[in-house]
Amino acid sequence: MLGFLLARAGVDVYVLEKHNDFLRDFRGDTIHSSTLELMHELGLLEEFLKIPHQKVLELAGQVGGESVTLADFTHLPTRCKFLAFMPQWDFLNFIAEKGKAFSRFHLKMNAEVIDIVEENGLITGVRAKTRDGEIEIRADLIVGADGRRSTLRERAELQVINLGAPMDVMWLRLSKLPGDPRQTFGHVEAGKIFVMLDREQYWQCAYVIPKGSAGEVRERGLAAFRQEIAQLSPFLGERVEELRDWKDISLLTVAVDRLSEWSRPGLLCIGDAAHAMSPIGGVGINLAIQDAVAAANILAPIFMEGRPSEAELSEVQRRREFPTRATQRMQTIVQNHVLARVLSSDQPISLPWPLKLFQRWPFLRRIPARIIGVGFRPEHIKTSAVGEA
Question: What is residue 337's predicted lDDT score, i.e. its pLDDT?
Answer without folding.
Answer: 83
